[in-house]
Amino acid sequence: MRSFKIVIQAIKLKLSKRLQYIEQMVTADYTHIWDCCCDHGFLGASLLSRQAAQNIHFVDIVPELITVIESKLQEFFQHSISAWKTHCLDVAKLPLQEYHGKHLVIIAGIGGNLMVQFIDGIQQKHPNLNIDFLLCPVNQQFALREKLIALKFSLKNEVLVKDNRRYYEVILVSSTSDTHKEISPVGHNLWQSDTVEQASVVKQYLDKTLKHYRRVQQGSTQSLDHIISAYNSKA
Fold first, then answer.
1. Which fold has domain 2-186?
2. End-to-end CA distance of the chain
3. What 8-state DSSP symbol labels residue 78?
4. What is the pLDDT of residues 44-75, one digit of tens each?
5. Residues 24-36: what's their mean pLDDT?
6. Which residues have C-beta within 8 Å of that of residue 118, sequence separation ≥ 6?
7. Phi-psi region of 159 (alpha: psi -120 to 50; beta: other; left: phi over 0)
8. Where would you tag: which of 118, 127, 163, 207 has the fewest CB atoms within 10 A of its CB?
9. Residue ranges of the domains in the chain?
10. What pLDDT digit, counting tens, does each position of 112-127 carry?
């Protein structure tokens, strides 16, 4: 028991600030959580250790990573109360139809454009499933949000995180639009702050984002005025 607790503590220590925020945003009662592009599996292992769902799925397309994760899970989580399973496959091809219950699909650590492709694939394969998505793109946040709006997803929660001098939007959405807020192309709650520190993070992120789009605008044949104007409204 003691060695197991040490393993859990080690996993928590390996979670970056960004992954900690993602982990903390998993609060609903899910039957299945899919940790996609799971890399070394630290996020999924942390969710597994606190029994965040009845079933935790580890998904990555790199066979070597899945082999290592499978070995670690067998070693440290063989008697876990929550069940776990590894999948070596394309995220767009998640076999959600094989598992009954409420699903949360977590996708982090990739760009927004690739994230859009994954979400498109999942939605085309499972158009009638009520799925929650917890998303943390490394870039192309505006394009991702536009796609979520086009799909008529709804917002459940969102937060802005600064981690190792980089800024991340963590967005929790639902594939249904019945009971939650509309998604904003630039975010709602991201710009709210309860502390001086978070207010500084918000300002830094807004300044950085506006500078980025103004720089891109100078070398682009397409107008980005609508994007710049949307972010300017938060200034």
1. Rossmann fold (3.40.50)
2. 51
3. T
4. 999 999 999 999 999 999 999 999 999 999 98
5. 94
6. 36, 91, 92, 107
7. beta
8. 127
9. 2-186, 193-235
10. 999 999 999 999 999 9
